[in-house]
UniProtKB/TrEMBL annotation:
Domain Tyrosine--tRNA ligase SYY-like C-terminal: from-to ranges: 128-204
The name this protein goes by in its record: Tyrosine--tRNA ligase
Any GO BP: tyrosyl-tRNA aminoacylation
EC number(s) per entry: 6.1.1.1
CDD domains the record matches: S4
GO cellular component: cytosol
Similarity section: Belongs to the class-I aminoacyl-tRNA synthetase family.
Organism: Rothia mucilaginosa (strain DY-18) (Stomatococcus mucilaginosus)
Lineage of the organism: Bacteria, Bacillati, Actinomycetota, Actinomycetes, Micrococcales
Substrates-to-products reaction catalysed: tRNA(Tyr) + L-tyrosine + ATP = L-tyrosyl-tRNA(Tyr) + AMP + diphosphate + H(+)
Amino acid sequence: MEGKSVHAIGTPLITNSDGTKFGKSEGNAIWLNPQMCSPYAFYQFWLNTADADVLDRLKVFTFLTRAEIAEFAEKVEKEPFKREAQKTLAYLVTSLVHGTEATDQAVAASEALFGKGDFAALDEATLESVVAELPSAKLPADRLDMISVLTELGFAKSNSEARRILKEGGASVNGVKVQGEDAAISKDDLLHGRFAMVRRGKKNQGAVELV
């Protein structure tokens, strides 16, 4: 093409604080299509942004003003453990891509995993996406006793260890503590008729799906 004026738009390469590229080739990119990356997984991706990167992400991926971002900069410096910048980033970007309803479900799921919400409040699609991110086991109805559940999830190395955990009250189903060697997941415990969320102690979270 000769004698014509053309225009091009370029943007700076987005990088992480360690200098690596923010993109698919580095394994740190995600899909916009909810069939390829659920709204819950999408929300978690942004929520896990490092403190060193979160302010740049707010500048690039949100419509916050400079003054608002400056406020978050102060919060990151003084109270990084609250992760307010990450929560805002995750909520705004997920809402932009998937809408507020799906984002609210993702937030509720995240809170439920940390014992601050109710798994029963999640819709089936969100719960299914949460289960996909956790250790899980597919079990028939006749193997929903808690000894089998704990061993299948890898939360107990043996039946005897599972019995000890149950005796000490160290396991819960859908946020409710279970106790006793005869404990089992009942039909009423199954969320959407399929799932039960199982926790051992404070850190081990998993799920069982009825097959």
